[in-house]
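pipeline stage [seq->struct] | target=DNA-binding response regulator, LytR/AlgR family | organism=Algoriella xinjiangensis | residues=233
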Amino acid sequence: MKLSCITVDDEPFALKLISSFVEKNQDLELISSFNSAKNALKFLENNLVDCIFLDVEMPDLNGVEFAKILAKKNQKSLVVFVSAYSKYAIDGFKVSATDFLLKPYSYDDFEQSVEKIKIQKRLATLEEEFIFIKIDSKQVKLNLSTITYIESMKDYVKIYSEEREVPYIPLMTLKKLSEMLNDNYLQINRSQIVNFKKIDSFGKNHLTIKKKEFSISEKYRIEFDIKKQSLSN
């Protein structure tokens, strides 16, 4: 299956070149090309792509800021920066760019970037874990990495995910659901489980995820402290 891509560059010749390389490559599919970073961002509000070939220096919005905006929106597209200036390479990798293409570049250089994209996509696929939860009469597939926290409601639970604004509410107990989760999840009080990777800050008796504060009860404090210690080592 081909990887979907967009290309973004304000220079017409540069945009034409990178787009032609994408079209030439058998592993990639060019979805669209943009000469404006802002237009590309607008497109990505309603469309998902596997990778983005992105110029760094653009008048309306530079590539590094573009990548930061994607990260804040939890966009999973892989980014390859393209620039005539090697000084931007460090900035690129600070925002977790997959690769950096230095202009002028050859098709061989481009293919090396594509190989890095393919490797990263394979690794991401291997890391993904799913569970199935019953909602009404349907079995719904849920990516564990997207769950932020879970709340108990007696015989039901509310599962809050980055994939949607409203929670999933399956008919199951918190204990039953906890048995389906991996080691990234930790119960912090009688009625709540959190995804440890989503924690923004924590103190002695509380933690914060996406500006929401959670209390850590004494019963679960030792386990939380052990988890916290393993994270800092």
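stage status: PASS
auto-comment: The CA atoms of residues 64 and 92 lie 6 Å apart. Helices lie at 12-24, 37-44, 63-72, 88-94, 107-127, 174-178, 218-232.
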